[in-house]
Design a protein that fits this description.
Elements: H1 17-31, E1 41-45, E2 56-61, E3 67-71, E4 76-80, E5 91-96, E6 104-108, E7 111-115, E8 120-124, E9 134-139, E10 152-157, E11 163-167, E12 182-186, E13 192-197, E14 202-207, E15 213-217, E16 226-230, H2 246-249, E17 267-268, H3 269-275, E18 284-286, E19 295-300, E20 314-318, E21 323-332, E22 335-345, E23 351-356, E24 361-367, E25 379-386, E26 394-399, E27 403-408, E28 423-428, E29 430-431, E30 440-443, E31 446-452, E32 458-464, E33 471-475, E34 492-496
Antiparallel strand pairs: 1-25, 2-3, 3-4, 4-5, 6-7, 7-8, 8-9, 10-11, 11-12, 12-13, 14-15, 15-16, 16-18, 17-29, 19-20, 20-21, 21-22, 22-34, 23-24, 24-25, 26-27, 27-32, 28-30, 28-33, 31-32, 33-34
């Protein structure tokens, strides 16, 4: 920064040298301010129609570029110009109403499929007036008792043309209606196949980039912390309260697994995996209150780089914290595991639905009814666009037999890639009937930088000890980029180590 003095000011009235130096230092501090999330990803709020409360649940992209939004109040809206607002103001049109708290939607062959609490319904506008006039029940093969907690979430269609649903338990503790606490698969002709049990309180269901199915489950009984879980067909996800319906499933989901121990002290997920072969551990644990509190919608980045440097990874919403996590997944010894990273915070309400367009626009819907949310608004509908700038981030965190390999979006300053730049703690949670769990069995590993790639885009950490079944929480506050010298935008990572590579 250059300060220019007025040539007409006499010497006796010139800025004192000490004040001048202070001004220069202050300007330097302003210019060297650390990067912020909004430097890389911009959030744009799309206002609702006048007088309407859009407690949005599900979002779907229509073939003509419009966006469909369903609401907890039973409506479906079609939004024009959602991708270009505010340059072209968004226009909302009511497509359908009087549905039973729809939370998810998917488009297929001219029909909009809507997941309501009691059924999967498909809607179509037959006469072309912009309103749905044909409503058909595709499947209603699960039950509801009227309990407030019996939400149902649905996925997009998979490669085989199936739509996946996941159901909340009754009151979050029992299965008082058919297939409460289950993952269900529904074919194009409406055939329902019970596929996995053990669900507690899901917030969304979707896919990773490979097309494998995942859902989010919330902290509570048999869930020490919230997590992202892999739906392996025939698996048991951990909560036994819905397992009474294996007889109804007639073998479609395999045999009923043994019940985990009901001791008040609880057990450990790692221990019970040896006792219950069907038990699949959470792919990625989201440590309670540290990483988030109520995970919800799931969307893979299939934009091919139009949404930034994280193509192939997964974004997960959070209702209570009004934010989005970024998740890197890998399979080790046949099980999914990986790392959760902070990504973007500051949404106006609690997120439920996420949808990433092929053009790289991420839409997020929100509500705070029932649990509250940091955003502060009762409802929201927002769009996120990448600015084209690449943040300095940990791109991937991969498990090794003796530690982890980190890759980066920008080269690291090798002088900062030293042991003192890292710290780590590892812990697990109780697996039992008690609601939630503190962090247990804590370990403080020794972290050593064993190698740094010549291009600075990766390094290896030796971690002693690695603890199978533990979350390895890493902080890399000391790392700096070689371009600009600033630190990581998000220096935290939470890796769930279900398996140690051979």
């Amino acid at each position: 920064m250059t300060l220019q003095l007025n040539p007409f000011v006499t010497r006796t009235h010139m800025i004192p040298q000490r004040a001048l130096l202070a001004a220069v230092a202050s300007a330097a501090c302003v210019s060297a301010a650390p990067p912020q999330e909004e430097d890389y990803y911009r959030m744009i709020s799309i206002p609702p129609p006048a007088g309407e409360v859009i407690e949005a649940g599900g979002i779907e992209m229509l073939p003509d570029g419009r966006v469909a939004v369903c609401t907890r109040r039973g409506q479906v809206w079609i939004v024009e110009n959602a991708s270009s607002h505010p340059a072209k103001p968004a226009k909302w049109t009511l497509f359908a109403e009087y549905l039973h708290e729809p939370l998810s939607m998917a488009w297929k062959d001219g029909w909009l499929y809507v997941v309501q609490r009691p059924e999967l319904t498909r809607l179509r506008d037959e006469d072309g007036d912009g309103r749905a006039d044909l409503f058909e029940t595709v499947s209603d093969g699960w039950g509801i008792s009227g309990n407030y907690h019996e939400y149902t979430f649905g996925s997009p269609f998979d490669k085989e043309g199936n739509l996946w649903c996941v159901t909340c338990l009754t009151g979050s503790f029992s299965g008082e209606a058919l297939y409460r606490g289950w993952v269900l698969r529904i074919s194009a002709d409406g055939k329902l196949t019970p596929t996995a049990s053990g669900v507690r309180s899901p917030g969304g269901i979707g896919f990773n980039a490979k097309g494998d199915v995942f859902y989010t489950d919330n902290q509570g009984a048999w869930n020490g912390s919230s997590s992202l879980k892999w739906v392996k067909p025939g698996s048991f996800q951990g909560n036994p309260n819905g397992n009474i319906y294996y007889e109804n499933a007639k073998g479609a989901a395999g045999e009923r697994p043994a019940d985990p121990p009901y001791s008040d002290k609880g057990s450990r997920m790692e221990k019970e995996r040896a006792n219950i072969p069907e038990l699949v551990p959470p792919a990625v644990v989201l440590p309670h209150k540290k990483a988030g509190q109520s995970p919800t919608g799931i969307v893979p980045d299939l934009s091919g780089g139009k949404f930034g440097p994280f193509a192939g990874q997964v974004f997960v919403g959070d209702q209570t914290h009004s934010k989005i996590h970024r998740v890197y997944l890998e399979q080790v010894n046949g099980y999914y595991q990986g790392a959760a990273f902070p990504f973007l915070k500051g949404f106006k309400s609690g997120l439920i639905g996420l949808r990433l367009s092929d053009e790289g626009a991420l839409f997020a819907s929100g509500t705070d009814r029932g649990w509250g949310a940091r955003g502060g608004s009762t409802h929201s509908f927002e769009r996120v666009n990448w600015t084209g700038k690449t943040p300095f981030e940990i791109h991937q965190m991969r498990a090794l037999d003796d530690g982890f390999e980190l890759t980066f979006t920008q080269p690291v300053d090798k002088a900062s890639a030293v042991d003192a730049s890292f710290r780590m703690e590892a812990y697990t949670y109780s697996y039992g009937k008690v609601y939630g769990s503190p962090e247990l069995d804590g370990v403080t590993p020794k972290v050593t930088v064993s190698s740094v790639a010549e291009d600075g885009l990766s390094l290896r950490l030796k971690v002693e000890p690695l603890t199978k079944g533990h979350v390895h929480e890493m902080h890399a506050d000391g790392l700096r980029t070689s371009a600009g010298g600033h630190g990581l935008l998000h220096p935290e990572a939470y890796y769930t180590l279900n398996e140690i590579p051979d």
